[in-house]
Design goal:
The complex is a heterodimer.
Chain A lengths: L1 H6 L6 H12 L8 H19 L7 H19 L5 H18 L3 H18 L6 H21 L9 H24 L23 E2 L3 H5 L5 E7 L10 E7 L1 E2 L4 E2 L14 E2 L4 E7 L6 E2 L1 E2 L2 E3 L5 E2 L5 E2 L8 E7 L3 E2 L5 H7 L8 H13 L3 H14 L3 E2 L10 H9 L1 E2 L1 H14 L4 E8 L2 E3 L4 E5 L3 E9 L3 E5 L1 H5 L7 E2 L12 E2 L4 H26 L3 H10 L7 H27 L5 H15 L10 H11 L4 H16 L5 H13 L12
Helix pairs in contact in A: 2-3, 2-5, 2-6, 2-7, 3-5, 4-5, 5-6, 6-7, 7-8, 11-12, 13-14, 19-22, 20-21, 21-22
Chain B lengths: L2 H13 L4 H12 L3 E5 L6 H11 L4 E5 L6 H5 E6 L4 E6 L6 E5 L6 H13 L1 E4 L2 E4 L5 E6 L12 H4 L2 E5 L6 H9 L3 H7 L8 H10 L5 H16 L9 H17 L7 H12 L15 H10 L4
Parallel strand pairs in B: 1-8, 1-9, 2-5, 5-8
Antiparallel strand pairs in B: 3-4, 6-7
Helix pairs in contact in B: 1-2, 1-3, 2-11, 3-8, 9-11, 10-11, 11-12
Classes of the chains: A alpha+beta, B alpha/beta.
Chain lengths: 665, 305
């Protein structure tokens, strides 16, 4: 049956096949190199055109050269044929080439199966909810096509196979869910997902004037945070990233040659501790973010002496971790070398800075009074908080403090930190995010790149490290609202996101929040479903007596057994009531098939014998005798043992020569 | 095959030029004790075929021309009050014959049609509370025009099912047609042709046909075909068990005509289109005709066991 059905031409299917192939390849437009994309589009267009105008259908040589040029193109683009990018490109090229020549049923089968593989390759690039839903739809189309191939007569309309496939898909959902939940997870992916070369935005480990204001233009999500209890107020939502100790007068950084002694700091926390989960986007940096101030490091990182969460390697995949912080705290004593480092000054101090600090020192009784004086200074003088600060060249801090007085958070934070150090108060710069937007639908905060912020910490004898945000002294709105990234003219005061611009804007915003929420749930429950989750679920179901390895083996065993049962059933059905006579006859047919005479599955023995004899008149007598015996044994009323033996021996002796030689006599 | 049957086929072949296969199928149908329905356009030789068979087989035959005003009593007969004997006397209608030619059966109203169809199924007729047996053997050869022609009452599926085979004649080939056009009148020719089978011979052959062996493997094959039509979405509904019986019976007769006493898959394939086409409807269209391709697909879809 197989052969004959597969050879049937299916004139109504190539166009749907081409369209489904287009849908399948569409998301690769973002993943593959542009020349490869153009190649795919061109071939698909050619295919569709040649369905309309059959004379455009390429011949064998043209197809061969298209194949060679496709492979060559992939090789020149990626300089290899293996690996994620080149592999996906090669598979896409192969698919389109198969579609080019697909006319017979078997070609369409192969094309659909290749396109299933192409669907898998999409997940090597992106695993988002939207793409998954799209690919699910594509798979429904592919399966509908597969269903249509197997029909004897074409369906009366397009919906029938689609609806049927939807039903099949729905039927498979429970199985998919069970497999998803119980199938053993691989801790490390077999391939490195999502380590694309695409630039990731985020804070860098060095602050130069203007570095953060560039980030402000990006609305990309930095991370999401979900509190287990009521979240802190906006004024308390400082997301601590990294701490910068050293400066060369122009930029701030932490000298990697001088790592801090890694003493786990002991914090006395006065308020209650806050537990929360963070869903961090990959930012290709080795630090994590936490609510100021973290009490404990998550499993994936360690807590450094200056309250940073540091990992061994840069983060290249989305990460979910649990955080524990407090907003009301007292840090322990400052070690001598930390104090010394927190007072270091660069060589770009000017006399007017010294005078300013000396004035404050003269009127302030203690350090905390001095800090207040400094904040008053920013508040009382005409400082402007702007996204488009002027460019300060030689001595940015000095120019900002005394001349320009227009700046963004990093200007305020670096300026303030330097003045504090000048006044003999240990101070350091902290980078992170501030605020974040609350998503009611998912009950979490979205922290975007434009929430990036810089602030200072000063060490006061009676309170330990205290967070001081000089930006808040100039623009208190900053800590309550997000910044609007429509920049305005240079030096113009920054605008804040207080409403979302009318009904339409508000609706759109609500929709965006709902979609973001769905995406978060997808990340958490589907992509984030890890080996650990699986085991804790198994423990919850009472399977904790099994070790992970045992559980894995049992699952694989169960799946293998069910596959075996299904496979055996199919085989048995195919071979039901197989009589030994048939086996012998089949051998006879195989011998003839070696001569290029295949028995069609629906062909009766007489018809086959007639056809075979016509092809090989030299064998006609033998064929006739064997077929006669077979007919008598298989379809006759009595099967005699003598016939049976004679049949077997005749087939055994039937060894026809490959070539037909005409006898001369 | 017996010389007599060979003679029937040859003689009929001379009258219906180039239609050997059709003649052979019709003969197989009668040997399998089945009723035959011949469907084709007017003028391709439906009635001639029916006449030829009746004549050659030496059967007592009657012809009923179906028209839209035909009444059941025109077929079955009527009871008439005989004054002399002071009772009703049944006067048998044309259905009381060994072979009934029901010409253009779909031109009559369903009421008249069903009178004949009942006789076909029961081999008896009932009128005025009295049952009258029909002669043995009893055959109906019905002809009909394609159902989309004007003035037809299509036979319902349940009644189509009672015909063992439905065959189509088709236009003759060019050479055969030429011979027909220049040759003698067919009706005259038929009258000159001697009867090929003597009285009881047909019944003997029918006996022999029912003794042709059908192996297990062929019953499997037949069941596979039935199951395929029932499971495939391409047909509106699958074949009935009666259709299965018809296929096997037809295959037996065909094998007998081929001179074998055992049925081969080829025999079954030969009679399959004629035995099942009128019992199947494709899922898509309302016309009860199946294209030739559908039958080919059906045969190709089922491997020979």
């Amino acid at each position: 049956m197989k052969q004959s059905v597969e050879r049937i031409a299916t004139p109504h299917l190539p166009l749907p096949l081409s369209l489904v192939t287009g849908l399948t390849l569409l998301p690769h437009g973002m993943n593959l190199a542009m020349p490869v994309n153009l190649y795919l589009v061109a071939l698909l267009g050619w295919r569709i055109a040649s369905l309309r105008l059959p004379r455009l259908q390429p011949g064998r040589w043209l197809l061969l050269s298209a194949t060679l040029s496709g492979v060559f193109l992939v090789y020149t683009q990626y300089h290899t044929l293996i690996g994620r990018d080149a592999g996906a490109a090669l598979l896409a090229v192969m698919l389109i080439l198969k579609v080019m020549e697909a006319g017979k049923r078997r070609d369409i089968y192969v094309s659909v199966f290749i396109s299933y593989f192409v669907v898998i390759t999409h997940f090597l690039f992106d695993q988002s909810l939207l793409l998954s839903l799209y690919l699910l739809l594509v798979m429904v189309c592919q399966t509908a096509l597969l269903l249509e191939i197997n029909r004897v007569k074409p369906s009366p309309n397009l919906y029938q196979p689609l609806i049927k496939t939807l039903l099949i898909t729905l039927q498979s959902v429970p199985i998919a869910l069970i497999l998803f939940v119980v199938f053993p997870r691989i801790t490390h992916p077999l391939w490195n997902l999502g380590s694309g070369s695409s630039a990731m935005t985020g804070l860098s480990d060095r602050v130069t004037p203007g570095a953060i204001s560039q980030l402000i233009e990006s609305a990309e999500v930095a991370f999401r945070a979900e509190f287990k209890q009521s979240p802190p107020a906006a004024e308390q939502r400082y997301w601590r990233g990294l701490v910068l100790w050293d400066t060369d007068g122009y930029s701030w950084y932490t000298d990697p040659e001088r790592p801090l002694a890694d003493t786990s700091p002991k914090i006395t926390h006065l308020g209650e501790s806050l537990a929360y989960d963070i869903f961090l986007e990959p930012h290709n940096r080795p630090w994590l973010y936490s609510l100021d101030l973290p009490l404990k490091a998550p499993n994936q990182a360690r807590l450094s002496g200056d309250f940073q969460l540091l990992m061994e390697k840069p983060l290249t995949r989305p990460l979910r971790y649990a955080g524990l912080s407090t907003t009301d705290y007292r840090t322990p004593k400052l070690s001598p070398d930390m104090r010394q480092r927190a007072l270091q000054l660069s060589g770009n101090l000017t006399q007017r800075q010294r005078d300013l600090v000396a004035r404050w020192r003269a009127s302030a009784m203690n350090d905390s009074r001095l800090v207040e004086k400094a904040l008053d200074y920013f508040n009382a003088n005409p400082f402007v908080y702007t996204l488009t600060p002027p460019i300060y060249n030689d001595n940015p801090i000095d120019e900002f403090l005394f001349e320009g007085r227009e700046g963004f958070c990093e200007h305020y934070a670096t300026g303030f930190t330097q003045l504090m150090r000048l006044a003999g108060i240990p101070a350091r710069l902290v980078l992170g995010y501030q605020g974040g937007e609350y998503n009611q639908l998912g009950d979490y905060f979205i922290i975007r790149q434009y929430d990036a912020h810089a602030w200072s910490e000063v060490w006061l004898a009676e309170r330990g490290w205290v967070r001081i945000d000089p930006t808040a002294a100039v623009a208190p709105e900053r800590v309550r609202y997000s910044i609007r990234s429509d920049l305005g003219e240079e030096g113009s005061p920054a605008l804040f996101r207080i409403d979302h611009g009318g009904v339409v804007g508000s609706l759109f915003h609500q929709f965006a929040l709902a979609f973001d929420s769905a995406n978060v749930q997808w990340r958490r429950w589907v992509i984030g479903y890890s080996r650990e989750h699986q085991f804790s679920l198994m423990r919850g179901l009472g399977f904790d007596f099994l070790s992970p390895a045992q559980w894995g083996l049992i699952t694989i065993g169960m799946i293998a057994t069910s596959l075996l049962v299904v496979g055996l059933r199919i085989t048995w059905q195919g071979k039901r009531r197989e009589a030994p006579i048939q086996a012998v006859y089949r051998r006879f047919c195989r011998r003839l098939s070696r001569l290029g005479i295949d028995r069609l599955p629906h062909e009766g023995p007489m018809d086959f014998a007639t056809r075979a004899s016509r092809r090989r008149p030299d064998l006609a007598t033998q064929i006739k005798r064997i077929t006669g015996l077979y007919i008598r044994l298989r379809y006759g009323p009595h099967s005699r043992e003598a016939d049976r033996r004679s049949f077997s021996s005749q087939v055994r002796l039937f060894r026809p020569p490959r070539r037909y030689r005409k006898r001369n006599d | 095959m017996s010389a007599e049957l060979q003679k029937v086929i040859e003689a009929a072949g001379k009258i219906l030029l180039g239609k050997q296969e059709v003649v052979k199928l019709s003969l197989a149908c009668l040997l399998a004790r089945g009723h035959l329905l011949i469907e084709d356009l007017p003028g391709v030789g439906k009635t001639t075929l029916a006449h030829t068979l009746a004549h050659l087989l030496g059967l007592h035959y009657q012809r009923i021309q179906f028209t839209s005003d035909l009444l059941p009593s025109d077929i079955i007969g009527v009871s008439i009050y005989e004054r002399d004997e002071q009772r009703f006397q049944f006067h048998p209608g044309p259905v009381f014959a060994q072979l009934v030619l029901a010409d253009e059966i779909n031109r009559a109203t369903p009421k008249a049609q069903s009178a004949l169809l009942e006789a076909m199924e029961e081999h008896q007729v009932t009128t005025d509370g009295q049952t009258h047996g029909l002669p043995e053997p009893f055959f109906v050869i019905a002809t009909q025009n394609p159902s989309h022609q004007v003035g037809t009452f299509p036979l319902p599926e349940s009644q189509l099912d009672r015909f063992l085979m439905r065959i189509r004649i088709g236009y003759p080939e060019r050479v055969a047609e030429r011979e027909l056009l220049i040759g003698e009148d067919r009706r005259q020719m038929l009258l000159r042709t001697p009867v090929a089978l003597a009285g009881q011979r047909l019944a003997d052959y029918q006996q022999q046909v029912s003794r042709v062996h059908v192996a297990e493997a062929l019953i499997d094959y037949c069941q596979d075909i039935l199951a395929f039509t029932r499971n495939s979405p391409d047909y509106r509904y699958g074949l009935s068990p009666r259709a299965g019986l018809a296929i096997l019976q037809g295959a037996r007769a065909w094998a007998f005509l081929e001179g074998r006493n055992l049925v081969l898959p080829e025999d079954l394939q030969a009679v399959l289109p004629a035995t099942v086409e009128h019992r199947l409807q494709t899922a898509g269209d309302s016309d009860n005709g199946l294209g030739k391709g559908v039958m080919t697909d059906l045969l190709r879809s089922i491997p020979v066991p």
